[in-house]
Write the structure tokens for this entry.
Amino acid sequence: MTKKILVLPGDGIGKEIVAEAVKVINVLKADFGLDAEVVEGVIGGAAYDAEGHPYPEVTQQQARAADAILLGAVGGYEYDDLPRDLRPERGLLGIRADLELFSNLRPAILNAELADASSLKPEVVADLDIMIVRELTGGIYFGEPRGIRNLENGERQGYNTLVYKESEIDRIAHSAFQIAMKRDKRLCSVDKANVLEVMELWHEVVERVGKEYPEVELSHMYVDNAAMQLVKDPKQFDVMVTGNMFGDILSDAAAMLTGSIGMLPSASLDANGKGMYEPIHGSAPDIAGQGLANPLATIMSVGMMLRYSLDQSELAGKVDAAVEAVLKAGLRTQDIYVDGTSKVSTAEMGDAVVKALLAA
Ligand code: IPM
Ligand code: MG
């Protein structure tokens, strides 16, 4: 049956990188038998401009009808003064919540070709392969009450609420254990149970769920230590599971281990495997429109889409191999450029991946 892929380029470099990923999808359709229909929509600032809302009704309908979604990035300086509810980021949080995409998979894999691009010593990061499982629809990002209020003394106070229900912890824990089962069977749950009650519950529920996965070696780490260990000795980790905000922070750190934030794809899945796929980096308005952005994280997000939502793991392997091939050939966008390699533009990188796919 024809699968519906909704493409949401968003803002800034989102448009450029998604265009390259769409080239890849089109080749998979034309030459590799992928049975898919691509529909384009708006989100973030682009949606605010077109429809007056960062996650408008029309996008909501497209998103609910899609089998999988490919998203670029949202955000731009021109939207910074909008009321909070209309800002581009709210579009992203809105679609995650609307589709209940609670399980966010952020793999950090160091491509051997890029060991020199990492700011860490090559031996610390060589062959790195970790998976961060981030809870994506709860925690402090969504907790109520939230706001900025006036105190009696005339001072203002900002407040947010970090809440997790047992059921929310339970389902993300299952998600993480299931992923660990398919990998090296080691799971590290990251919390702050020494200070926060909500994390005490997190710890307890993850421990309980762990009883159902006796083959997985479960450990727990406080988030401050986890941040340190990630930079000190990242290869000690296989799968990490954590809440929304800790996962946001740790996954940016993990990204840099791989040399560039432009290299990390992600999948955000609901309970049935429907998913949204996006690079973990932002819209980078400072380099937008100049052909400087690295499209590989978005192209690898297509790989994850093929694997997790479209049941096409063979094609996913081909996409990953094509990315590998262009890196091996020495092609680099500016973020991963080192002496002795060839600097290419966003579009040249996309074209090279397409060529490698067809040559394989
Ligand atoms: C991410 C981003 C988003 C987040 C922003 C843009 C809302 O940083 O996907 O990591 O904080 O989740
Ligand atoms: Mg982030």
Summary: The chain is about 40% helix and 20% strand. Residues 89, 92-93, 248, 280, 282 surround 3-isopropylmalic acid (ligand 1) (CB under 6 Å). The radius of gyration is 20 Å. The CA atoms of residues 151 and 157 lie 7 Å apart.
